[in-house]
Amino acid sequence: MPISRVDKDLDAHTMTVVAEYDAPVERVWRLYADPRQLEQFWGPPGWPATFVEHDLRPGGRVTYFMTGPDGEKSAGYWDVLEVEAPRRFVVDDGFADAAGQPNTQMPVTRMELELTERAGGGTTMTFVSTFASTDAMKQLIEMGMEEGMRAAMGQIEGVLAGAG
Question: How far apart are CA 115 and CA 86, in angstroms?
Fold first, then answer.
């Protein structure tokens, strides 16, 4: 399992996931820059993602849906705020309806991804999710966000190895 740490800070409304990969920063970045590679790990096993829109530039939007084992769908979007390829991006991550439009009844989370080179090779990926409130954080964690992140990040090694 590449995840080395998951820290939850209810006072700061943040969840930080740190993972280590034996691949250069540029290779790990391509996982997010290429929607076909992103589809291979985004979402938990058994819920493959399909990216409909993928504009990873400031002001752009990324939309996707995941399909469950019984055919049910869960959609989401990222509003892209900052991009410093190949090391960092910041997005607002939200749920969407069946048409791909933001579901305003659900919380939006600010996600910041940072990739840094490890001493001796490889990449450290730090994913910080910042929630609007403690209640929003608790709601999404109770819905399985942490387990979903762990499962998704765990699939990255297979994609990097070409098995995904």
Answer: 8
